[in-house]
Please model this.
Amino acid sequence: MRKVFYCSIALLFYCSIATAEQANKIIAVVNNEVITQQELDYNLLPLYEQYKSVYQNEDLDRKLRKAKKDILEQMIENKLILQEAKRRGIKASEEEIEKEIAKAKKGFSSSEEFTKVLKQENLNIQKLRERYEEQIMIRKAIQNYLVRKINITPEEIPSYYEEHIDDFTQPQRVKIRMISIKSKDKAIDALNKLRAGGKFSDGEMKFVTKGEMVPQIDNVIFNLKIGEFSGLVKTEIGYHIFKVEGKQQKEISGLAKVRDKIENILWQKKSAEEFSKWMAELRENAYIEIK
Model:
């Protein structure tokens, strides 16, 4: 749930709390429905809170202007989708709405706090129900449209797998401990202690992928056996001693293991393409006016 904030005089351009006239100002018409300044400002509040902690003055103004433009475009799209949902008879059930309200209530310590925040945001439970109803209808309309349009053929998954085999490959890795010392004399002393049977337990431990380190280190650590430690390896920041604690060979995940992941990737890619086409079609057949 969004928290209420109060605007300074300088920021009245961005929020219409000042007067009812400003709040009810129509800023866009989508077919036979309108979008008001108040609706836009409500959706802008979370970004305002985020931006004001990072940006100031002209930077803040520029970011907010861009955010207002983007949010208004999103609101227009939502209007178009909601209108399409109504045209197709798509509805939100009482159970679905109640589930969303229950989810919202979980973010509050008590019913009293929940009701208090609703009042602060000029909402009541009925208005909240209406908003959730619209959100559910929009989600359903998008899902229904994409399900009708998207088809992933049996050939596409293995084809994607072959073309992106590197994405499903775990390179060779070694688990190392590392001691780094700036002084050469101290580094030699540490190495001699290790050779005399000293423990390597204080060294930093991590997994390293082949090619991740500079070649001079790669050549050392990937040629050590498990349990072995290196001699001194000099770099720009000092001297290092490495010990290999374990190894993982290069491994390619089989198609069966990643089939679901690939199907999801293809679905997301096609979803974005089909959604863009759909929105272009809805816009083309709609009356849209931005005031």
